[in-house]
Design a protein that fits this description.
Distance between the termini: 13 Å
CATH architecture: Orthogonal Bundle
Helix content: 25-40%
Strand content: 15-25%
Structural class: alpha+beta
Largest sheet: 3 strands, antiparallel
Shape: globular
Order of helices and strands: EEEEHHHE
Strand order of the largest sheet: 2-3-4
CATH topology: Arc Repressor Mutant, subunit A
Pfam families: PqqD (PF05402)
Number of domains: 1
Oligomer: single chain
Protein name: Coenzyme PQQ synthesis protein D (PqqD)
Low-confidence stretches: none
Number of helices: 3
Length: about 100
């Protein structure tokens, strides 16, 4: 699947997740994601947690790239492959699905 910048995703209905803002010293929280009932839990930190939370918040892939680029002072062309990689991984693990109409 080719990931376009206007694509929007959300967690699948069988996936639960929580954030732990107390366990990490960086700006982004740790996110624990697990498909139910089969598991196992996936632990996301740094870029992974930002991508997850941004997509869950309704941001497009392009908006997520911009968020990370601006937050890290990095060029979008550097951030884009990392975001696409996380989205592809989440899709392959059946953790996310396309939002309606996207």
């Amino acid at each position: 699947m080719s990931i376009t910048e206007d694509a929007r995703f959300r967690p699948r209905p069988h996936v639960g997740w929580v954030t732990d803002t107390l366990s990490t010293p960086h700006d982004s929280p740790t996110v624990y994601v697990a498909p139910f009932p089969e598991g196992p839990a996936l632990v996301l930190e740094g870029t992974g947690s930002v991508v997850w939370l941004s997509l869950d918040d309704g941001a497009s892939v392009g908006e997520t790239i911009t968020l990370l680029a601006e937050g890290t002072g990095t060029d979008r062309s550097v951030v884009a492959p990392a975001v696409a990689s996380f989205v592809e991984s989440f899709l392959a693990q059946r953790l996310i699905e396309a939002r309606d109409g996207h």
